[in-house]
Design goal:
Blueprint (H helix, E strand, L loop, with lengths): L4 H16 L6 E2 H7 L4 H13 L3 E3 L4 E4 L1 H17 L2
Antiparallel strand pairs: 1-3, 2-3
Helix pairs in contact: 1-4, 2-3
Length: about 90
């Protein structure tokens, strides 16, 4: 099953957070977009939607971080993936 661009973005941010070990780590949204294979315009649109849905928050002009709601979403997405694998 394919993932939406929004889901790919959240998962890329989640993976970056997990790599640091700090759930409150801030990342440049364009770097996360690059990890998910998105163009800057798509990153702007997706991050705006994810902020409105309370999955991510802004920290300055370009930095973002996962909210507890976003963290839960990422874990659910990863859980679905694991369950569907043979």
């Amino acid at each position: 099953m394919g993932r939406t661009k929004d889901e790919l973005f959240v998962l890329a941010l989640y993976k970056a957070v997990k790599e640091t070990g700090d759930l409150e780590s801030r990342f440049n949204k364009y770097e996360i977009g690059e990890r998910s294979g998105l163009h800057p315009k798509a990153v702007n649109a997706i991050s705006r939607l994810l902020i409105q849905a309370n999955f991510i928050r802004k920290a300055g002009q370009e930095d973002i971080y996962l909210t507890p709601h976003g963290l839960k979403l990422a874990e659910q997405l990863l859980g679905e993936k694991k369950q569907s694998e043979p």
